[in-house]
Amino acid sequence: MKEWDNASPLYPELPIRKWIRENIPRGQEGYNIEDLDLIILRFGNAIGRDYGADGEFILCECKENKPLLPYKQKRTFQLLDRLLKEADPQEKHYKGFYLVCWDGKREVVQVNSDIINQKEFVLFLKGKLQLKPYNFGR
Questions:
Q1: Tens digits of per-residue pLDDT, 40-88?
Q2: How far apart (Å, rounded) are the C-alpha atoms in residues 56 and 7?
Q3: pLDDT tens, 9-21?
Q4: Whole-angstrom Cα Rg for the chain
Q5: Model-level pTM?
Q6: Which of 11, 37, 55, 133 gets the most CB atoms within 10 Å of its CB?
Q7: What is the rounded CA–CA span in Å between residue 53 and residue 55?
Q8: Which helix (H) or strand (E) holds 99?
Q9: Rounded distance between C-alpha atoms, residue 125 and residue 60, angstroms
Q10: 111: nearest Cα among 101, 125, 126
């Protein structure tokens, strides 16, 4: 298995991913390619702003079994998180990065270090339940 091969029936390999894996050098050569699972944008009445106003968003990386970011993912998402925070220091738009661990079967969902139920998870995604963003250990 190649370093980048992670296609499975749950995550089918898209043609662009296959092409990138075949044509872009690997990590030891200075390249890392990641995809981010979710960008949740809330806007308009949902957050008390005009429909056309800029909304607010969170970034989520989802895991099924272990709430851990591999080293390369952590470094990539940490850089993205830091730059977004610097661009929006009042946190008007960017509300943070979250690591979600849920297998789709259990009643509980882990968001960073918080264990919540599915109803609370819906509230979190809607911005009605505040959880601390992921701590990258800076």
A1: 999 999 999 999 999 999 999 999 988 999 999 999 999 999 999 999 9
A2: 31
A3: 555 678 988 898 8
A4: 17
A5: 0.86
A6: 133
A7: 6
A8: strand 94-101
A9: 10
A10: 101
